[in-house]
Amino acid sequence: MNLNELASQVHQANIKWWTDIHTGIPISRNKGELLMMVITELAEAVEGIRKNLMDDKLPHRRMEEVEMADGYIRLLDFAGGFQIALRFYPPSGNEVELVPDNKARAILEICPHICRILERGLENESACVSFALFKIRNYCLKHHLDLDGAVTEKLAYNATRHDHTHEARKADGGKKF
Question: Does residue 140 belong to any structural domain of this protein?
Fold first, then answer.
């Protein structure tokens, strides 16, 4: 499956986040909020590394791996939701070697690429989102994380989460976006 097909599939799985929880009518999502949530997933990956944690949702996987998958999922949903045509960056051979050995630094180096999605305007959104996805994939390759497996499992898990239902989101303390 190519990146655009995957983005469409991920967006369809997350369509409930793109509709009003009271009316079901489609809403305009705030790009800054969505991109900040990608950054928080990456920060959670660092926390998993720092504390050497297993994931609480997929307990057979390291938190680092699942949070990197969460960031990847959020970027794919962003691309699908805003109909951003993704580009595939073919590996030229040394990208994985260029990823720092220090995991926190490597993850921090992904963040500016996510922030640039907003600052460059629509004409470069495709390149920026695509490159951020590429950087996450390279990180996972360098550090031997099963990104594809974690993405598949996390999408399946998310499909059955009570806290993602409109009912739970309406409650006090429910997820608002």
Answer: yes
